[in-house]
Amino acid sequence: MWVPRNHPYWVFYFITFIVIGSFFLLNLFVGVVISSFNKQKDDLGGLKHLTELQTEWIETQNKVLTSKPMPKARMPHNKLGRFCYLINESQYFDMLIYTCIILNTFLLTLKWGN
């Protein structure tokens, strides 16, 4: 007996719908929880009465105070390591890499533009 709209492929549709729908609802729930947490943290931290610009300034100061400078790498003692180090520190090498990236992007644009 034939049943209308009864096809085995509908199984894939509903499984995909359930998986994507559950991820969407989970993301909404997590977003609300994080938003509520940040609001409570701001209320308790005394940032409630500051303007947005003042809050951004405080956050910038905190990032600057907690950041640590990275030590510069020392030149290796062996010949191969020193050669690779000098190539890596060269401005010409940087320009070569940038040129390769731009050419690659341009070539991909030409290939997919047709």
What can you tell me about this protein's structure?
By secondary structure, the chain is an all-alpha fold. It folds into 2 domains: 1-68; 72-114. It has 4 helices and no strands. The protein has helices at 10-45, 52-66, 79-89, 91-113. The chain is flat and about 80 Å long.
What keywords describe this structure?
mainly alpha, 2 domains, single chain
Report low-confidence residues grouped into runs of 5 or more: none
Please state the CA-atom Rg, rounded to the nearest Å.
Answer: 28 Å
Distance between the termini: 49 Å
**Helix proportion range:** over 70%
Main sheet summary? none
Please give the count of helices.
Answer: 4
Number of domains: 2
Give a concise summary:
With 114 residues, the chain is mainly α.
Give the topology, please.
Blueprint: H1 10-45, H2 52-66, H3 79-89, H4 91-113
